[in-house]
Amino acid sequence: MANFAIVGATGLVGTKMIERLGESKLKVDNIYLMASSRSAGRVLEFRGQDVVVEELNEHSFDKDIDYAIFSAGGATSLKFAPIAEEHGAIVIDNSSAWRMEEDIDLIVPECNYPKLKRRIIANPNCSTIQSVVPLKPLIDEYGVKRIAYTTYQAVSGSGKGGIDDLINGQEGQAPKKYPHPIYNNVLPHIDVFLDNGYTKEEMKMI
Predict the structure, then answer these.
(1) With contact defined as beta carbons under 8 Å apart, do 127 and 120 qualify?
(2) Residues 6+ positions from 183 with CB-CB distance below 8 Å
(3) Stated pTM of the model
(4) CA angle 27, 104, 86 (to 5 degrees)
(5) What are the angstrom distances between the C-alpha of 87 and each of 27, 154, 171?
(6) What is the DSSP string of 159-181?
(7) How far is CA 14 from the centre of its chain?
(8) What is the pLDDT of residues 88-140, one digit of tens each?
């Protein structure tokens, strides 16, 4: 048996995590659902039981928690994941906050295993995960010398501003989020450009 915490429990990804954990065969002794003060007090269901969402704060991990699964954005993960780690929990983080840190395990369950230098585990971005899952058996069987990879990512990945630019672009309005019109267009620019000429998103995949 183990105690779980879901941080960002009321978000789209958080509610899906609760659903998937409920469907799994994992034995859950206690589950703690955590979110911002705006969502505290909401009642969500886990395996047929009502669970009250509590406000995430510096004392949320004072209790016995074995696994803390974060999907509440990078800033929240940077602040609270070390607190959970310090209290003995293994943190599984779904944000981009820890992906580029050398001492943090970057894990896709079908492909590699954590060494737990620290008790924080990151997962790669979506494009990386879906590519390495089929690549792993090919690499194991045949080896791979080079991979050329192209992604086309939705404007929703940059939030409401990106969606607004797409919709308003149909009416000929100038973009506000992007440096160039995105309607009927693609931009070879995801995240910020780095000193090496690549964007941060490209380096995450590398």
Answers:
(1) no
(2) 165, 166, 169, 170
(3) 0.80
(4) 65
(5) 21, 38, 53
(6) -HHHHHHHHHHTTTPPPSSSSS-
(7) 10
(8) 999 999 998 999 899 999 999 889 999 999 999 999 988 889 899 999 999 99
